[in-house]
Amino acid sequence: MYIIVVGGGQVGYYLAKALMDEGHELLVLEKDAARTAFICNDLGSVCVRGDGCEMTTLAEAGAGRADMFIAVTGEDEDNLVSCQAAKHKFNVPRTVARINNPKNETIFKKMGIDVTISSTNIIMESIEEEMPTHPLTHLLDIQEQGLEIVEIKIPPHSPAIGKTVKELSLPAGNTLSLIIRSQQKPFVPDKDTILEAEDQIIAITTPESEEALGTTLRGS
Amino acid sequence: MEFHKILVPVTGSTADDEAIRLACRLTKKKNKGKIWVIYVVTVKRSLPLDAEIEPEVKKAEDVLNRISNVAENEDYEVETDLLQAREAGPTIVDEAVEREADLILMGVIYKRRFGQFSLGSVVPYVLQNSPCEVILYHQYTP
Predict the structure, then answer these.
(1) Are B18 and B48 in contact (CB under 8 A)?
(2) B89 min Cα distance to partner chain A (Å)
(3) Domain assignments of chain A as residue spans, ordered by start
């Protein structure tokens, strides 16, 4: 697979190294001459000095035959423009962009970038998982459908304990998909499943109704 | 000065003929001295590495044939190789490492870039990274 990585900083450098170890054909585009020389010295002639936002640079880099395009510079604007050019001008099948400001995630998705990775969001998700006071843990956003998959732990004082799923007044469009109970195998709940304290529930919800779901399952 | 394994990268310049003659003179023929002549076709990143670039390959084959004839006239048989790579410098160095060459002999001609004498990018790379001795044969061009 031919992969172009825009940005030869710490992320780009280690990513390039890992992809090369997996046997992929790779090219790193880096603006800084000293950094380009460092990468070439360390990894061989896989780094070219150039601006990944420029069409001529991308054409010379062979974006037209690239299978994947990854933009991991420290600037969201550069990542967006280079991924857009790769996607719409060179028809690269898969574009991946690093997002530094999580607020930009929606814009990236609207612009047709296939995969966005926000380090801030990843760290936030880890914090949510580790903090027991946090009502919901976001596991995955399904942006096309406007849905999200969340994890909720039933606290000992929850009003949902002892109730069946059909007795809960779940917000419309919300589904409890999986229950993970201690010392049991995870199972898919049905309408007669009774909730217990410390149950971990994987649910499908919407951004608008996640608060209501949290209240139903955890109490106010 | 005598060497057992000499790598001679060629480009089709007029300096190549003299470079190969010099390589023949420097090789220990009786002790199974070996000369490899390589031509590196550089492939643009817009093409896959194994792309067939007909005119370049034809030119390379012509150059390698000519160099073989020059060596034969010196009563030597050389081994020729046509390589495709992204960059010539690292390829030459890699070949020297792989073949355990004890000398890289390159013919260079006088080039000017932006009004200044220039060795290009390949020669400095080889000088900097070569695993063995390097001799540059500079062709006098009046």
Answers:
(1) no
(2) 9
(3) 2-122, 131-218
